[in-house]
Write a structure and sequence with these properties.
Blueprint lengths: L1 H9 L4 H36 L6 E5 H10 L1 H6 L10 E2 L15 E14 L2 E8 L3 E4 L5 E4 L1 H4 L4 E4 L8 E5 H7 L6 E7 L5 E13 L8 E4 H8 L4 E2 L1 E6 L6 H8 L6 H8 L4 H11 L3 E5 L1 H43 L1 H9 L4 H39 L7 H23 L7 H5 L3
Helix pairs in contact: 1-13, 2-11, 2-13, 2-14, 11-14, 13-14
């Protein structure tokens, strides 16, 4: 009881220095909780933010995937020189993507039939796809998928077409070339594999500006494109947007050869939302398909995440170092001012250990008050960061508070220990006699 009373009395003495210690710990705790809270939650936030800029997984027929890897036909496709596809997937199989283990991480997808046709006499790429299609899943649930949600950065003058209709949207470059605008009707002419010429009129509901080579294309409903090309229930690519976990060594090893994984590695990889594991599961449910992650997107997610986390961890470390220096200086000044009191305690029989424990207990008590206040403030700061940067709140995990309190306890202990050593040099006779 006497020990507790002495600690309680210490709060009424040297109030200014006590408040400065509490404020220092509070600020350090605020920064640490806010930064570590964001670090633990930033992966999902960054993936969700980056996923608004297109798909990160593409699904192709095996034959096309092999040819693409051998001859880099994707580069030709981007320049508009690619011939019409010769291998296809079933459009009706696309819904199976939402039946895999990581179905809830699949936020959107859209099948495509990419062909060429004459548009008002000008040869142009035609993309048959889904725009805003409602699918009934085997589980009884429904979901809305399509290009409308996957091309959020497009600037569209007009409105999106309806699925299963004769409507379409045209790229700005192609529209300027043809001299057409929203509301006009264009005539598509294509010769199919049997040598028959087919025509299809498409009413333009909008003109889009994608900012890239897609401005030279015309997008229309997949059902209409399949009739034009005489390819029922056929698509040559499926774009998939998924929330994924950034790759690590295990994911890269699995991407090269999943069969090389041990049983434990396999279970960890398969049950983690890596791009490669999601792609593998898509291949399991769609016959004859090869799913590949878009490496540029995956690399961007990993790099941005690592750099963001590194900056926040560095800020946390710097705040703890600053707190340690400040607490050590404040305690050294406090011990110097209380030298008479400490000398008296030693003169009446208190050991160096007892006096040191008293000083540590006083510092721990005031630091705990500052840490609790800082933890509350840090949670609020984390929510502000989440709303400003990501437009959503940060999920504060209990591990963040445990880690911060452990780090602060270690920091305060190190700072206090360096200052308390001066107690050992206090000689009661000299101090009390003013020498």
């Amino acid at each position: 009881m006497f020990f507790l009373r002495m600690i309680a009395r210490s709060f009424t003495r040297q109030l200014r220095r006590r408040m400065l210690i509490a404020l220092t710990v509070c600020l350090s705790a605020t920064v640490s909780v806010a930064m570590l809270g964001v670090v633990f939650d930033v992966g999902d936030k960054l993936n969700a933010e980056l996923s608004t800029y297109g798909s990160n997984i593409t699904v192709q027929p095996k034959a096309d995937a092999v040819v693409s890897d051998l001859y880099n036909t994707e580069a030709a496709a981007s320049s508009g020189d690619q011939a019409d596809p010769t291998a296809f997937l079933k459009e009706s199989d696309a819904v199976k993507i939402k039946t895999i283990f990581w179905a809830f991480n699949i936020t959107n997808f859209a099948p495509q039939l990419n062909v060429h046709a004459d548009v008002n006499g000008v040869s142009a790429p035609i993309v048959g796809t889904w725009f805003n299609k409602t699918l009934k899943l085997p589980s009884g649930e429904s979901t809305v998928v399509g290009v409308e949600g996957m091309r959020s950065w497009w600037q569209l003058d007009g409105s999106w077409p309806k699925d299963d209709s004769d409507q379409g949207v045209i790229g700005k470059t192609l529209a300027d070339q043809l001299g057409v605008k929203t509301g006009d009707t264009v005539t598509l002419t294509k010769k199919d594999a049997d040598g028959q010429t087919r025509q299809q009129k498409v009413r333009l509901t909008g003109v889009y500006d994608s900012g890239d080579d897609e401005n030279g294309s015309l997008y229309m409903a997949s059902s209409t494109a399949q009739v034009l090309a005489n390819l029922p229930d056929s698509v040559d690519k499926i774009e998939v947007k998924a929330l994924t976990t950034p790759e690590n060594d295990l994911a890269r090893k699995a991407a090269k050869n999943p069969a090389a994984l041990s049983q434990d590695e396999w279970e960890t990889w398969y049950c983690t939302a890596y791009p490669s594991s999601i792609a593998y599961q898509i291949e399991e449910v769609i016959p004859g398909a090869v799913a590949k992650q878009v490496r540029q997107v995956a690399a961007l997610q990993g790099n941005v995440l690592q750099k963001t986390q590194a900056v926040m961890i560095l800020m946390t470390a710097l705040s703890l170092v600053a707190a340690a220096v400040a607490v050590a200086n404040l305690m050294a000044a406090s011990i110097s001012e209380r030298s008479n009191e400490l000398a008296l305690l030693k003169a009446i029989g208190a050991t160096d250990g007892a006096v040191s424990r008293l000083m540590l207990a006083e510092t721990a008590a005031i630091s705990l008050v500052g840490a609790i206040a800082g933890a509350l403030l840090g949670s609020g700061v984390a929510q502000i960061v989440g709303q400003v940067v990501f437009g959503s709140g940060i999920t504060m995990r209990p591990m963040v508070f445990v880690l911060v309190f452990v780090l602060l306890a270690f920091t305060v202990l190190v700072a206090a220990s360096s200052s308390i050593r001066s107690i050992l040099s206090v000689k009661p006779a000299e101090v009390l006699h003013g020498r």
